[in-house]
Amino acid sequence: MKVHPYFLSGTFLVGFCTIYSLAGVGEIQAQEATNVVPPEPGNAISNSPGQTSDSRFQSPSPDTPQPPGINAANIPDGPPAAPSEPTPAVSQAVDHVEQGDWVAYGHDATGQKYSPLKQITTENVTRLQKAFVYHTGSLPRPGQQNKWAAETTPIKVGDGLYMCSAMNDMMKLDPATGKELWRYQAGVKYESIPYTAACKGVVYYTSSTIPQGQPCHNRILEGTLDMRLIEVDADSGKLCDGFGYHGQVNLMKGMGYSVPGYVSVTSPPPIVNGAIIANHEVLDGQRRWAPSGVIRGYDAETGRFLWAWDVKKPNNHGEPLEGQYYSRGTPNSWSIMTGDNELGQVYIPMGSAAADYYSAMRSPEENAVSTSIVALDVKTGTPRWVFQTVHKDVWDYDIGSQPIMIDLPQGDHTVPAIFIPGKRGQNFIVDRRTGKPLSRVVERPVPTDTDVPGDERSPTQPYSPDVPAFEVTRDLKETDMWGMSPIDQLYCRLKFRQAHYEGEFTPPQIHKPYIEYPGYDGGSDWGSIAYDSTTGILVGNWNNTPMYDQVITRKKANELGLMAVDNPNYRPDPSASEGNGPQADTPVGISVSPFLNKYTGMMCNAPPYGMLTAVDMHSRKVLWQVPFGSARANGPWGLATHLPLTIGVPLNGGPIITAGGLIFVASTTDNLIHAYNLKTGKEIWNDVLPGGGQATPMTYEYNGNQYVAIMAGGHHFMQTPVSDDLVVYALPH
C-alpha cells in the first residue's frame, strides 16, 4: 500500500473527572467500498472459493493490446529497443553538496536527511517565524473527489528552490521570497490520479554534453502520475528538446493493457552514473494480472532506453518485441530509491506481486524478490544482490521506506551499509556491496494455520534482534483493548475475542476476521528515517496501528460489487481507498479496515499510535523514545478535542536532522510542524500549519539565512486539511 487511512487520536475528560484516552477517525470510510462493511463476527464465508472471475466481465488476457489514450502525451515510441549503456556522466550536485543546499529528496545521494546547517539551534528555534508561504495552485476542483496529498519535499540548488505540485506542475522559486520564477505545466488529468495525487519531489541533473551557459546544461526531472519522464531547463522551465520526444519519455511503452490511474510515478527517479532509474506504483488489490512492476533505466542526457529488469524475464533486458509486454502482476516498487554512484548500484525497495493478500499464484521468481531490497547494476539492470524482509508477503508489508546509505560504525572503522526500515518495525542493516547482514538476522517460527485453500505460509520470518525495533509491544492482548467508556472497551474486547489472532504474521482467514499487527501502516513508511553521521544518531517516526481483515470468496466479492479498476463496470467510490480489493483473477477478494470501534470511530488498541525514537548506532541502543503528536485536532466522532496533550497520533512523512542539534518533523494528524532536541527528545517548538504536514521537511541556506520548508498539503486518507501551501520559516533578520 502507498498511503493510508489513518486513525486520529485525542484525550478528554469524561464523567466524574475520569480521563479516558481516545482515538477517533471520524467517518472512517476510506477503507470501505460503497456497500462493504468492515469484517465483523458472523461475516464468515461458507461458499467454495473456487470461482476466480466476475461473471459480468471477462478479465483481459495478459497479451491484450494497450488501448488508445494511455500514452498521455501521444509520444511516438518507435520500434522496441535493445539494451545499451548511458552517456558518460559528469560530477553531479549530489556528489558534492554545497553547504547551504538540499540537492535531493533526502538531502544528498545517501538519503540521510541530515543538514550541516546550524544557524537555527536549540536555543533560538523558538524565534522561528514564517518567511513566506507559496501556493502551488493544485487543489481539488468543484465536483472532483478529494484525492490530494502532495507529499512534496522541495530541493534547493544554488539560487533556486525547485519543487512539483501534487499534479506534477514543476516550478522554481526564489529561495528568499518564494516568488515564482518559472512554472512548467505538466497537463496531468484528474483521471490519471491513482489513490493519491502526489509528487514527492524532483531531481537535479547537470548535462555532460551541453556546455555551461546553454539551455538544458542544468535540468530538472520528474516522473508523473500519467507515466511520463519530463526534463526541463533549470533556468527557464522550458522542455529539454533533446531529451526523449521533445522533453518527454513515455513510460507506458511495453506495459500493455491498462487504464488511466492504474500505474503512476509518485517518487523522484534517481540518476545514477548517467542512468535515470524509473519505478512506478501499481494499484493494489485490483487483479492478479495487473500491469508489470518492471524497473527501467533511461539515459539522463537523451531519454534513450537503456535496460529493463523484468522479474520473470531476468535474462531479457531489452524492450518487449512487437505484440509482447513486460510480465504482468510482478512486484512493483513505488517509493524512493537510493542511488550509489560509487558502486554503480541503485537500491530498490520492493513490494509484493499483484493480489497483495493471496500468494498461491505467485511464481518462484516473484517470491524471491517480494518485500525486499534489490541492488541493481545501473549499467545492465542485473540484480547484484537481494535482501528479503518478509517471505511470501500477504500482509501488504511492502517496503515503503527509502533505504538509507550509512557508513556503519564497527569498532575503530566503518563499513558501507544500507539501513532498511520497514512497516513491521524491524530494522535491518546490510553491507551495501554484498547485501550480507551486518547485524544478526534470525529466522523465527511464525503461525501458518490458514483456511485459504492452497495458500501456504512460510514457516519462518526474518528478525533483526540486535537493532532496536520500532515497536511498542510485539503482541496484542485482550486486556489491551480500551475505549472512552467501559462499554466501548467491552465492545473492543468482544471484537478481539471473535477474531483470529496468533500474534505477528497471523495468517489470512476466510471463516472469521483476523487481526494484522503491526498493520500495513505500522513501523516506517515512505517518510523513512534520518541519520546524523557526526554523532551516529538515527531518528525514526513510526506508527503503531493494527488492522482488522478478512479474506472473502470471489462470489462474496462479486455480491459486494468489488471490481478491478480496469473493469468496464467499475465506478469510482468517493469513500473507497486501498483496503477492500476484488483481487480479480484469483479465488478470493479482501476486506481490510482499521481495528476500531465503528460507533465512535476510535481505535480499539490503546495509544500511542505515533512514536518518535532516537537510536545510537554506535551502541545500538535506544537513546530516547516518546509519543509523537498531540490531540489538538483529533478526537472521537471526528470532533477535535483542542487539547494540546501529547498522546502519539498517526503520521505520514519523515524527519530531518540538522547540525544545530534539532529534529524537524511534521507528519502528524495534529497539523503541526515540530522541532525536537536531538539529544533529549524534548519538543522545543511547534507551529500550526494551514494544512496537514504529511510530507518530509527540508532546510537550506540563502544569503546567509537558514530556512526550514514544509509542504502543508494535507492528506485525504488521513483526513487532515488539504491545502496548496508550502510554508517556509526563518529566524528574524
- Looking at the structure, what is the overall shape? globular
Mean pLDDT over the residues: 90
Helix content: under 10%
β-strand amount:
25-35%
Distance between the termini: 44 Å
Which properties best describe this structure?
single chain, 733 residues, mainly beta, four-stranded antiparallel β-sheet, globular, disordered N terminus, oxidoreductase, Quinoprotein_ADH-like_sf, PQQ_rpt_dom, Glucose dehydrogenase, PQQ_mDH
Please characterize this protein's 3D structure.
The chain has 733 residues and is mainly β. Helix content is 3%, strand content 29%. The protein contains 3 helices and 43 strands. The strands form 13 sheets. A 5-stranded mixed sheet has the order 3-37-38-39-40, with no helix packed on it. A 4-stranded antiparallel sheet has the order 4-43-42-41, with no helix packed on it. A hairpin with a 6-residue loop joins β7 (170-173) and β8 (180-184).
Explain briefly what this protein structure is.
This is Glucose dehydrogenase. InterPro entries: PQQ_b-propeller_rpt, PQQ_mDH, PQQ_rpt_dom, Quinoprotein_ADH-like_sf. The chain is mainly beta and 733 residues long.
